[in-house]
Amino acid sequence: MLKNKLKEFKLAGMVNSLEERLSYATSKNLSYSEFLEILCEDEENSRKDNSYKKRYARAKLPCYKTIEDFDFSFQPSIDKRLISDTSTCSYIREKKNIVFIGNPGTGKTHLAISLGIKALSKGYKLLFSTTSEMLRQLHISKADNSYYKKFAEYLSPDLLILDELGFKKLPNYSSDDFFEVIAKRYENGSTIITTNKSFEHWGEIFDDNVLADAIRDRIVHHAISFKINGPSYRTKTMKSEQKS
Q1: Edge-to-edge, what's the strand order for the sheet holding 159-165?
Q2: Contact 119, 93 (CB under 8 A)
Q3: The whole model's pTM is what?
Q4: 223-228 and 190-195: which strand pairing?
Q5: What number of other Cβ atoms are within 10 A of residue 229's Cβ?
Q6: What sign does the dihedral 15-17-21-24 (CA atoms) show?
Q7: Over the stretch 33-73, which tens digit does the pLDDT of each residue have?
Q8: Domains assigned to the chain
């Protein structure tokens, strides 16, 4: 009867732990209020866990990476203390951006994903996409009149991670879409960008220096930048495998 009522009230966390908690309460001679408090904690933890799982699935992260797994000794150009500070997610509360600049294989995506994982653990909504895939999706959506709905998907997260900016030169229509996403998120949400191009070379990405300046200004105005000067992890791994 009690379980049915809890199910009716959609208290799944309490339902799942009820038998175990009844046994525990009896053995420890808990008061009614103590027993109820434990059940409420179970429900709260269950909802937090379910919320995390749903937000993780919607984030579309390509893999699971943590800051603890990152080899800072291999990339001494990265300020580990500043990375630790950003992992508190204060930049999200302040609507700031983060830009990782470096050659392929230097750990930019690893660090971006790691900060995304930290954001999820603190209850924030996240979306990960390569820059080219986001622009492809926006372009495709224009054909079936779902553009504004798709566009909103990139505006709604607390944190948007755009990977691999600069690996491909963007066509003009894509540059406009990229500007619109950045302009609408400006001071409304945080964005992490990984790129192989330093800021002064962004004109090469967008083929329009005026547009590149407008995009750069909106990103950099409230941004923390990390320039990674070290070697490629992939090259290191390949050399290690060849030696073994």
Answers
A1: 126-130, 159-165, 190-195, 97-102, 223-228
A2: no
A3: 0.85
A4: unpaired
A5: 12
A6: positive
A7: 988 898 889 888 888 889 999 999 999 999 999 999 999 98
A8: 2-58 (no CATH), 67-232 (3.40.50.300)
127 phi and psi, to 5 degrees? -140, 130
Q: How far is Cα 233 from Cα 80, in angstroms, rounded to an integer?
A: 17
Could you say which DSSP state residue 200 is in?
G
For residue 126, list its beta bridge partners: 159
Closest alpha carbon to 67 in 103, 119, 105, 104: 119
Per-residue 3-state assignment (H helix, E strand, C coil) for 87-154: CCCHHHHCCCEEEEEECCCCCHHHHHHHHHHHHHHCCCCEEEEEHHHHHHHHHHHCCCCCHHHHHHHH
- Within the chain, which residues score under 50 in pLDDT? 238-242, 244
The set of residues, in sequence order, having a beta carbon less than 8 Å from that of 90 and lying 6+ positions away, is none
Looking at residue 50, its amino acid is N
Rounded Cα distance between 24 and 35, Å, is 9
> What Cα–Cα distance (Å) separates residue 138 from each residue in 98, 141, 142, 193, 219?
23, 5, 7, 18, 20
Residue 99 is predicted with a pLDDT of 98
